[in-house]
Amino acid sequence: MVNIGFIGCGQMGRDHIDRIANRMGNAHIVAIYDLNRAAAEKAVADFGLDAKICDSADELIHAPEVDAVVMASRNDAHLEPLLACIEAGKPVFTEKPMTIDGADSWKVVEAEVKAGKKLVQVGFNRRYDTGYEQMKEIIDSKQIGELLCGDCRHFNAQAATSYYRTDNVVNDTLIHECDILHYLFDDDYKAVEIKCARQNRLNPNGAENLREPQIAIIEFQHGAIVTVEANVNCQYGYDIQCRLVGESGTVSLPDVATPEVRQAERIYHSISSDWFARFLDAYDKEMRAFLNRVERGEEPSGQMATAWDGYVANVAADAMLESLHNGGRVEISLPERPALYA
Fold it and tell me: Which CATH number fits domain 2-126+281-306: 3.40.190.10, 3.10.580.10, 3.40.50.720, 2.120.10.30?
């Protein structure tokens, strides 16, 4: 049984608390912290937790009863707790992105290298989605040869919040593609360019605050090119697509299976707007993988996203933001991957 210290009791945090408390079976939340103490108190009450409410992330991390930490706090609150977990030698699962930029994420990588152990697992849940798992298997088997190009779609019915801004399209939306494409292609990025399309008049946040749709053009070191459409006000639902072209065929992410309805001279399938529901199984599998490897005393491996993966995603996002703000193609340069992550 793994004793968990939990940081962050917002929407994503509450979803993970429910997951650990009610669906995992091999973990107890024994300590909890949120900057807003009332949010922590509410989570303890709502989920019936027998957990100590801590006054700081540092207190939680160093509590002797805490075996591992799960963090779902704001993006800009990840760095210091991650470094504290590494220093304390405690495994930690953090929601994406690992930090707010490549510079901060490099500090996490350096800390792990200094400790000589991988402790951080980053919550890029798409790696655990069945459709993406099947795509990865086909790609790695070379069934369709080497990958040449592709196109992806990340559509939301509406922006997540009224304060969702232009940069959030990269930091909170395209960051998923920054990780999953690096994972599927198993190749480093060479360059990116972001272009903004004609603005959607139905955007409730206003074009002056939220410039989108955004189109990302991503180049890989071995020559492949992928375009990604990010549209957070598509109106019709939450729609994730990925089609990759190989030398002898293509592979595409399957649509979510929903009933086909034939009615009133129409044939249609429903598309949910609920992004939690779309990846519910992936979130469960991802958390189960984290808890199982902690229980076995293992470091993150295989399809688990490591601190290095989190760093690569942040560096790619940094380049996207540079292109978004200044225009043009931005080259991506990564240092040599430390042997710890080989």
Answer: 3.40.50.720
